[in-house]
Structure formats: C-alpha cells, structure tokens
Amino acid sequence: MDVNVLYNVHHHMAIGIAIASYFFMVGLHAGCSILSVTCTLIGKAEYKPVAKIGAIGVIFLFSTAPILLIVDLEQPFRFFYLLVRFNITSPITWGTFFLTSYPIFTTIY
Predict the structure, then answer these.
(1) Which residues are CB-neighbours of 107 under 8 A, at least 6 positions away?
(2) Considering only Cβ atoms within 10 Å of each terminal Cβ, which end of the chain, N or C, has fewer?
(3) Residue-by-residue DSSP string for 29-69
C-alpha cells in the first residue's frame, strides 16, 4: 500500500479578519440591543442608565460594523453601485439596503 505525503500545501484562509470582526461586532450588537430593549421595557429608574449604555453600544457597533464589510471588498466603490442600481431579486442588494438603513433606524431608537 502506497502512501502519498504532500508538503508545502497552501491552506487558504476561509474568511478574513474583517469578516470575522464583523460577525463579532454583530454579536455584540445583538447583546447590547437585547439589554437595552429589556431594560427599557422593565421601566424601572435604576435600569435607565444601563439601557442608555446599551443603546449607545448599539449605535456605535452597528454604525461601524458595515464599514468592515466595505473594507473587505476588493473594489469598495462597488458598494455604492449596489445602492444606486437596486435589483429587487438580488440578496446582495437587499443586504446593502438593510445595512445602510438599519443604523439610521437604530439612531432614531
């Protein structure tokens, strides 16, 4: 029985550091959002500072997280093309729309 041994095999990295950081920031965003909404719905005065800190965390995290996706693109100006040319059947276009509109609605909250 022959055994083949391969050396110097290049292992391609599945995702870059920008995408991994994006997923981490979105997870932190979800935690801050749940914390803020829960403390707001409870309505006690001692939880209001915690709700405010959670809301500020939500605004900061989800305002900066989409920037990591734009940085990861090989041609970052294509992002603006997706905003101008709205294709209703493209999931990437819908993702672009939600990523740009969600921080605005989060700031209103």
Answers:
(1) 59, 63
(2) N
(3) HHHHHHHHHHHHHH--GGGHHHHHHHHHHHHHHHHHHHHHH
Q: What is the pLDDT of residue 100?
A: 74
Confidence of residue 15 (pLDDT cuts 50, 70, 90): confident
State the Cα–Cα distance between residues 57 and 60, nearest whole angstrom.
5
75 and 86 Cβ atoms separated by less than 8 Å: no
Cα separations in angstroms, 79 against 3, 32, 54, 82, 85: 48, 27, 29, 5, 10
Q: Report the distance separating Cα 15 and Cα 12, nearest Å.
A: 9
Nearest to 107 by CA among 68, 69, 60, 64: 60
The model's pTM: 0.66
